[in-house]
Each structure stands twice: as C-alpha cells, then as structure tokens.
Amino acid sequence: MRSADVLRFARDAATGYPLRTSLSVLAMAIGVAAVVVLTSLGDGARRYVVEQFSALGSNLVIVLPGRSATGGFSPANALTTTPRDLTVDDAFALTRLPSVRRVAPLTAGNSEINANGRLREVVVAGTASTYFDIRSFKMAQGHFLPEADWSRGAPVVVIGAKIKEEIFGANPAMGELVRLGDRRLRVVGVLKATGQGVGGMNTDEVVFVPVSVAQSLFNTSTLFRILIEARSRGEIEAVKREVTAALKARHGEEDITVITQDAVLATFDKLLRALTAAVAGIAAISLAVAGILVMNVMLVAVTQRTAEIGLLKALGARAATIRNAFMAEAAMLSLVGAVTGYGLGLFGAFVLRQVYPVFPAYPPDWAVIAALGTALGTGMLFGIMPARRAAKLDPVQALMKH
Amino acid sequence: MAVIQLAGIERVFHLGDSVVHALTGLDVAIDAGEYVAIMGPSGSGKSTLLNLLGLLDRPDAGAYRLEGRDVTTLSPDEQAAVRSRRIGFVFQSFHLVPRLTAAENVALPMMLAGIPAAERAARVRQALKDFGLDQRADHRPDQLSGGQRQRVAIARATIMQPAVLLADEPTGNLDRATGDDVIHLLEELNQRGMTLIIVTHDPKIGTRAGRQLMMEDGELKSDSARPAAVAG
Ligand SMILES: Nc1ncnc2c1ncn2[C@@H]1O[C@H](COP(=O)(O)OP(=O)(O)OP(=O)(O)O)[C@@H](O)[C@H]1O
Ligand SMILES: [Mg+2]
Questions:
Q1: How close B226 comes to chain A (CA, Å)?
Q2: Residue B152: inside a domain
Q3: B21 C-alpha to ligand 2 centroid (Å)
Q4: Cα–Cα distance for residue pair B139/B96, rounded to 1 Å
Q5: B47: Cβ below 6 Å to ligand 1?
Q6: Which of A211, A243, B36, B225 would you label with A263, given CA atoms 20 to 30 Å apart?
Q7: Which 3 state secondary structure label does DSSP give A81?
Q8: Residue numbers of the domain that contains A293
Q9: How much is the ipTM here?
C-alpha cells in the first residue's frame, strides 16, 4: 500500500468516528495548550523581572546592612549580633576606592507631600546627585539634586512624574515650594516617567531629597542602602572585595552584605527558569494522560473495526500495512491535537499579554518544541500497542465479528 | 489443469479439553474454470475449508497447491500477496467498510496492492459499470440495498482479476429474487473463466453448479465429479 493511501485511509478512519476522534484531539490539544500557556507565564515572569532589574542601572553594586550570604533573610542571620548601621560617612569612605566610579547613599521612608492645596502620601528617598547617573534617570524638567556636601544638603526636592501629575496637574511645578513632613522644600526637577521600579518603589511616585534632609526628616543617621557603580563590568567583583574590606575595617567586623545586580539577576533568572521548567513538566503530565487516551481510543477503534481488519487481511493486506494504518491514525490524532493545542496556547498567551501588558508572556522555543515533541511521541508510542494488536488479529476470527 | 489441489488436509480445533476435527483427510482437486458448490449440514466444515482455500487459515496437516505452487509453506506476507492477486472473497454479510463509498470499497484491494490512484479510478469506473452500479458510486453501504451491497462486494472481490472466487453463503442475507440475481452474476463471472466455489445450504443453487461437494463431519461425503471414488 502506498504511503499516501495509508495516510488517506487513516484520515478517513479518524473522521469516520468524529466523537471519538475529537475527544482524543481535544485531550492532546489541552495538554499542549497547557504547556504553552504555563511556560509563557513562567518565562514572561522571568523576562519581566530581568527587565526590571536591568532598568536599575548597569554595573551596580548594592551594600546593605547586616550579614547575609545570599542577601536573603534567615533565622541564622537574626541570631547574630545586631550589625552596625551604615552611615553617610561609610558611604563617603567608599568613594575613594579604586574600582568605584560613583557612590550614592540611600535612605528611605514614607511622608506626606503637601503643595498646591493637595496632600498625598509619598515615598521619600534621601540620596545625592550621583544617584541620577547610577540609576540612569532622565529629567522631564530642571535638574536632579545638586552636587553638594552630603551632610549639608540644600532644601530642594526632585519629584517623580506621577507626583507632579497628581499634585500640580497641568500647572508648572518648577520652583514651587512643597511641604514634606515639617520641611519646606523647593522643586528643582521633575523626573521623566519610566513606569519602572523594583519592590513597589516605582520611581514615578517617589520624591528625592538630599540625604541629610531625609535623615533629619526621619530623625535617623542610618542608611537604607549604599549604591555603587563600578568603573566597568569587569570591576564589579573588585568593587565587592574592596567595599567588603573597607567596611570591615571601619566596623571592625564583616557586618554588611554586598550584592551585585548580576548575582541577583542570575538568581532570579535561575529560579524562574526552574519554575517554568517545573510547570512545563507538570503540564507535560497531561500530555502523557492524553497519550494514554489516544491509546484507549485506538484500542476501541481496533475492537470496533475488528471485522474491517479481517476484511483487509482477506483482501490481501499485509500485517505491516494494517499496523501502519493504525499507527498513522494515532499519529494524526496526536498531530492535529498538538497543532490545535499550539494554536490555543498561542492564543492564551496573547490574551495574557492583553490582560497584563507589562508581562511579556511568550512561550519559550524549548517549551514549544518539547510540547509538540512529547505530544507526537506519546501519541505514537501509545499507538504502537493497538496497531500491533490490530495487525496480529486472526482474519477468520476477525471476520466473524460484527 | 487443477487450479486447486488438496491432499490429506487436516484441520483440528482445540476448545479447552475437547478436540474438534473440522476437516479430516481431505483430498480434492478443482480445475480452472470449474463451478463448485460445497454443501453439507451446519458444522460440517464448509467454512473451514473455504478459509483454508482462501489462505485465511492454515491446515494442521496436508498439502495445498494453488496453481501448482505449494502455498501452505509461504510466509504470512507471501500469503497476503497470493490473497491479494489470486483469490477473491464474497461473504454472507457483505463486509463492506461502512465509512467508504461503493467506489472506495471496490478500490480497496487495488489500494492495498499499491496500484496508483489514476489506474484504480479507471478500473473502478469500469467495474461499477459492469455490475450496474455506476449510479451508486458515491453511495455508502447504508445507502444501498442488500443486493446492491453484495454486487459491490462482488465487484471488489473480482477487481484484482483473481484465479479463484470464494463465496461463503453469498445469498444468505438476501431474499430469493435478489439472491438469484447475485448467483447469476457469479455464474457470469464463472462463464468468463473464473473458478467459482460457493458454500451454500440452498439445494437449488447447489444443483446449478457443475460440481457438488458434500461435506459431513469434516469429511468429503460425496463428490459429483468422482461418484465412485469417494463412496464408502
Ligand atoms: N475457531 C474455531 N474454534 C473451535 N472450533 C471451531 C472453530 N471454527 C470452527 N470450529 C468448529 O469446526 C467445525 C466446522 O465449522 P465450520 O464453520 O467450518 O462449519 P460450517 O460447515 O461452515 O457450518 P455452517 O453451515 O453452520 O456455517 C464446527 O464444529 C465448528 O464448531
Ligand atoms: Mg459456515
């Protein structure tokens, strides 16, 4: 029997029993669609996080108080002696290190901004002029915090795009006086909207003041973070070493944590990749289930069409021909199911992107290949047994069945 | 020349502990172009014999020569090739594939034999015309009468121009008039040279045949071609 005829015969057999065929196609389609959608979600999350981190700035090294190997929190960390706080002097000391290009101190807290007859809660970030370059900000109007002695900052403020929008609306904000807590500060700049930020700190909704102003506002002398830009990507590790050594010398012990953007990114990347692979694996189980369904459908087909198989043998079909015809049918069910599922999955990912536009929910190539491969593989694998059973039928017995 | 030669054919079925001798010590020779009716009571081994002749079954002992060639020792694939080209089957219950049209059913043996689609189409068209089915080419079996179905089945059985046409109670599911039509059709084929072997319970059909083989308990009770030899 010619291959084209085998395929046509199998197709006619499959379409001859529409309910059975559509059920197994549907099962396969759901399996593949699940893999495509879930991996889109997982990989979308990964890309989202990576993009957000990249937006932080390049060659970034962050120093935070407290000793922790990974930057995470663990009971073991909590038990060690309370670490010494990071101070503006600590930060300033780091500016002299050879591999360091810029340093920005950062202290943060919540306060109320009051201007133009409007009141709003804001996140206040106390930092220095250097922060602008480290974070690669862009100004919509005016300039960022002026270069000045970190311990004697001017009473000025730079506001995020959304703050400007909500407090001043269409009115000019530049040069206006705003009340921040019990301070009166002059607006010297408005940041360009970015829509980005990490940890709920969207820079559009932050106001920036000199670090000394923030510290007196919150009545503290500590820093939340020290942000450092290395001279180059290759010097990130050197910065890490130098900073650790310098602060150890100042504090007497190693009570700080230095994290690099690369490391954080790599961790998140790895984590989310693993997560994506895991959900893909779980979804793939449904493919195995679909494969078993295809097997059952084909076993039913063999039983239902026993007389037909007997007839084919009487008409001169070889065992291999019958096996191929049934294998082809199983493969078709899987193939159509897989392609349908792929389409459904892409549509699902499309809907996800419409609902969550910031989320780049595209299925990764490997997941698509794996899903289609598994679908076809299981379909064919589970098709072997019924096909062999059909080929082995005794024609005399088979012809007696009705 | 004998198209079929059976010598010492035995066929034994084991059903649990019991042993059924469906065929015992069968020696028959059938010449090319003969018209043979196999008759006998139910369970006498008629269908078993026909299945052996059609290479759907193998004897437990004995030799079967088809057109001078020992076919009992052939491999399953070789036997399939013989069924494809030298043997045609007509069944009591027609055995048409329900999802295929009349034309597709007739084309089935050619498709299995790997004949190109264009040649198949031409031969099917001719065959349907010969059997008066050209108006029914695109009908499915459930849209055909019993007589039409059996005619489709006969067209299918003969499309490969086999040497031997085997029919197991071909009129069993048909009324008398339609059954007679089918028998006439088969006889026409026989007159054109095809060896015809019919299993039947109907004595009228039996007497129309040129030769009657009477079976009983797996043995050949009488053979109208050799009255003396088998008696006793
Ligand atoms: N597959 C089988 N297993 C066991 N016994 C069988 C099998 N096939 C046939 N037989 C037995 O062999 C004997 C001959 O059966 P066969 O079908 O050839 O009879 P038949 O002459 O065709 O009968 P009928 O006129 O009823 O069709 C019967 O006793 C039957 O029970
Ligand atoms: Mg019978």
A1: 30
A2: yes
A3: 15
A4: 12
A5: yes
A6: A211
A7: coil
A8: 3-53+266-400
A9: 0.94
